[in-house]
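Re: the multi-chain job from yesterday

Posting the exact lines I submitted so nobody has to dig through the queue logs.
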Amino acid sequence: MTVLVPELVIDQTGVHRDLAIVIDDASGLIDAVMGAAHAPADAIYLRRTALAPGFVNAHSHAFQRDLRGKVERVSKLAPEDSFWTWREAMYAGAGAIDPDRIRDVARRCFSQMRNAGFTAVGEFHYVHHQPDGTPYGNPNVLSEAVCEAAEEVGIRIVLLLTAYERGGFDRPAAEGQRRFCDPSIDVYLERLIALQEWAADRPLVTVGAAPHSVRAVSEGWLTRIAEHCADHDLVLHVHADEQPREIEEALDATGLRPVELIERAGALSAHTTIVHGTWCDEHEIALLAAARASVCACPTTEANLGDGYLPARALLQAGVSVCIGSDSNTIIDPLVEVRELEAIARRSAVRRNVLVREGDDGPTGYVLDAGWSAGARALGLPQPRIETDAPADLIALDLDHEEIAGVADADLAAAIVFAGSSALVTRSWIRGR
Amino acid sequence: MTVLVPELVIDQTGVHRDLAIVIDDASGLIDAVMGAAHAPADAIYLRRTALAPGFVNAHSHAFQRDLRGKVERVSKLAPEDSFWTWREAMYAGAGAIDPDRIRDVARRCFSQMRNAGFTAVGEFHYVHHQPDGTPYGNPNVLSEAVCEAAEEVGIRIVLLLTAYERGGFDRPAAEGQRRFCDPSIDVYLERLIALQEWAADRPLVTVGAAPHSVRAVSEGWLTRIAEHCADHDLVLHVHADEQPREIEEALDATGLRPVELIERAGALSAHTTIVHGTWCDEHEIALLAAARASVCACPTTEANLGDGYLPARALLQAGVSVCIGSDSNTIIDPLVEVRELEAIARRSAVRRNVLVREGDDGPTGYVLDAGWSAGARALGLPQPRIETDAPADLIALDLDHEEIAGVADADLAAAIVFAGSSALVTRSWIRGR
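And the result, structure tokens for all chains:
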């Protein structure tokens, strides 16, 4: 048993003083939450510290961490830079990956995540094969290397194994995309099953499926993957509605928008997460709500890639669960991501305090839950709570840091969200370690 | 003499290795920049450190730092929260100020600024008198207390003494505004002159004029203040175009938009800075460009207050100098502010690398200059450069910080802008100290 006695506990229920958290070291679960007065003599006192559940990063491409600074100049490829010219630079980065390199960059990336207050990551992993598309001897070697990097760092990972079939509607894979592709849906599902088996006895690793997008995966693949996920109780993540061009292409090819296509393929359920959803229209939001699907917003990446503005207020009003991801990993900071959800909503509505749920007195509860419960739901992980039987995935926040120093308890959660950054995080525990 | 030998120097001209910076301790100026090989034996070697000019924060209301966390809940005053309901909460904070309190909060606020990499601040100071409007025995006591707080912290300050005449067009000051008001323009100008004299022998303090806004100050006051600024070579700062309502009121009362009114009053010149400019239209942007006036964007505050989106691209194309301010001081981080300029431009244009000047290869140079030269220009300070006779206002950045670790020299400035935060800043020197 490890017993932590912080000055404050902050979770979905508010800010609490005088609590002790008892962690069962073997299971990595919280065994009990009790009054600090009952703490044993060997309890660890965390002075001037608030303890909170760790944040969940529902969408990451770890290797993109090493594009930092390389992609912020005008491309020679196109007169107007865009997501699409950025993608060419990203493909060059993907082309340079091998098992050692991906392990190295993933380790550095996940380490920054853990230091920033993320305790779980959904790694949407799409670089699978050798540069010409030939599988490695072990066809999951790159995925396994990423998971092992997470284990080394001690962060919980959901490896979202990406399915990639083609370059676009009626377009084969381009050269830079060959490493991402499997020759058939059966081969992809074999790899997925093999990875599920490999991960079965690894306490920090679980597996999900990730048909890349409606441009990269046909309806037939989507349907087969959705069936597999339903049979194996796996989450399904898919990029959609990040850029207007993707929607135009889907409409041209099929007469449907991306989320409509995903729904027709039978791949929209409570286990589904649409990554981005920046350009979701009203009908797509209604489909998401009806299916109880999630949206993963990646605010800092969407800003960097010039994607547009998430319809955050409409998603809240429709009851769609919205979580966050660090995506391109240019910035890794859960507080910056959740704050930006509300910032976009405020700038767009030209008012304040927009993402307020029924019963809440402000947006703080909603945006924190985007980083906590909505993320865990999207990744199929236990809810991040500070209560008995919840995972002991915790972060320590410095109450003396100048970002929040002197703030009263009643205002502290709001100050952390609106004035704080990952610089507040001094320590973290994952499965109690 | 103090000689600093960092691993790298980053300034407007790029990234340089093997330089030594010689500081004249008496004047606080850079005496020479020479090859590191010529550094004397007692030089201070700053290993794994980049040295850069400090950032200029052109717009701050220091006391608002203590609103953190207090204003992020739905107001009981209005069904729809907005800038205007926030303002009521801010007035309550302003109402509680006295000389000791403002010195205390300013000290904490400026200290965070200095730690975050700002080496100069333009303090737009508008709380002048006792709560009922009666002047203190020394009518500048609150302004002086703010300047003394800056001196204690060791940050350069331009005290922008605010003129406040009325509550709005044809509306007297409301109760919460009485502390801000002077009974006549002559009384205001007397206070301004007294403050100029008080500051004359204080090396870290200079003074500027700040007619609050076209709603709070009449054209007659604007004209008199502009004349005084021209005669005394002072900068003139004025809030304008932050919120649509302010523009509607100006149009209703005068038939002119705020920047048009400022221009008609003779208060738009190369010494003028328009704070915000969020809703500037094409004609106002043309007026700003013709007058060579500056705009001070306050991106994180404008997000928090739900102001809208700065027309950053249009301002660049018109050649208007844009600087940054931390304004409400909820967030204090120069890199976050400058990055957000480009982020807004990208999200709005749905493309990347938008704020690119002729001759630059990307937006990094432009946004860094928003934090450096444009800010200094707006505040009437010497240009922040690492060259002979420039002020030794410098910051040290940690090259091993996980935000930028491993980035090549050629990509480093871009990585600092797009992936960095104030957590990179390990040390600062102002006037060489």
